[in-house]
Design brief:
Layout (H helix, E strand, L loop, with lengths): L1 H25 L3 E3 L4 E5 L4 E3 L2 E3 L5 E8 L2 E9 L3 E4 L7 E3 L5 E3 L8 E8 L5 E11 L2 H53 L3
Parallel strand pairs: 2-11
Antiparallel strand pairs: 1-4, 3-9, 5-6, 5-10, 6-7, 8-9, 10-11
The structure holds 2-acetamido-2-deoxy-beta-D-glucopyranose (2 copies).
The site of one 2-acetamido-2-deoxy-beta-D-glucopyranose has 8 residues, from loops.
Length: 192
C-alpha cells in the first residue's frame, strides 16, 4: 500500500514536470514588431510598437544602448507594476503589449533600444530597434535666413535714415552758421 502510494506520487510528479516542460516549450516567447528601424526629428515622438506571445505574465524591460553606454529605461509587468527610471519618467509611456512611447526626442536619444520579455519561468527573449534622430536643420535655416534678411533690411533702413539725418543736419548747421556768424561772434566776444 505504502509502496504503491509513493510510486503514484512519483509518477504524478514526473507527469507534472513533463507537462510543465511541454507547456513551457509550447509557450516559448515570441515577439512581434512591425518596424525595427525608425527615423525621427528632434522634439518629435517615437513609438516602439511590439506585441508578444508568452505563457504567464511576463516582465518587460527596455534598455537603451549607444556606443559604450547602456542605460535602463524601465521595467514593467502588465497590470502589476511599472518602474521607469527617473531620467525617462517624464518622456516614456509604457504599454501592456510591451510597446513604449518616447516623446520630446533629443539628439542623444539616437541609438539602439532593446526590449526584453522574460516569462515567469525565467526564460527570455529580446528584440532590438534602431532609432535615428535628425536635427531640424531645414526649418532652422529657413528661420535663420528670414530673420537675417529682416535684420539686414532694418539695418539698411536705419543707415539710410542716419545718412539722411546727418546730411540734413550738416546743411542746417551750415545754413545757421552762415546766417548767425556775425551775431555769434558778437555774443562770444562780449564776455572777453
Ligand atoms: C501595442 O498596443 C498599442 C496600444 O494599444 C497599439 O497602438 C500597438 O499597435 C500595439 N502593437 C502591436 C505590434 O500590436
Ligand atoms: C525600480 O528600478 C530601480 C532601478 O532600476 C530599482 O532600484 C528599484 O528597486 C525598482 N523599484 C521597483 C519597485 O521595482
Amino acid at each position: 500500500m505504502w509502496h504503491f502510494r509513493l510510486c503514484t506520487v512519483q509518477d504524478v510528479a514526473v507527469f507534472l514536470s513533463i507537462t510543465l516542460y511541454m507547456w513551457g516549450f509550447a509557450g516559448a516567447i515570441s515577439i512581434y514588431s512591425p518596424q525595427r528601424s525608425l527615423t525621427r526629428s528632434v522634439l518629435e515622438d517615437v513609438f516602439f510598437s511590439v506585441d508578444f506571445n508568452c505563457s504567464g505574465n511576463p516582465t518587460i524591460q527596455w534598455t537603451f544602448m549607444s556606443g559604450l553606454v547602456s542605460r535602463d529605461i524601465g521595467t514593467w509587468q502588465p497590470r502589476l507594476y511599472t518602474n521607469i527610471t527617473v531620467d525617462y519618467k517624464s518622456r516614456v509611456k509604457p504599454f501592456e503589449n510591451g510597446s513604449m512611447a518616447l516623446s520630446d526626442l533629443r539628439l542623444q536619444d539616437a541609438g539602439y533600444y532593446v526590449v526584453t520579455v522574460t516569462d515567469p519561468a525565467g526564460s527570455s527573449k529580446d528584440v532590438g530597434f534602431v532609432l535615428k534622430v535628425n536635427e531640424v536643420l531645414f526649418e532652422d535655416l529657413q528661420y535663420l535666413s528670414v530673420s537675417a534678411l529682416a535684420l539686414a533690411f532694418v539695418a539698411s533702413l536705419l543707415m539710410l535714415a542716419m545718412w539722411l539725418l546727418h546730411k540734413a543736419c550738416r546743411k542746417i548747421k551750415a545754413w545757421r552758421r552762415r546766417k548767425q556768424m556775425p551775431e555769434n561772434d558778437a555774443t562770444e566776444l562780449q564776455p572777453l
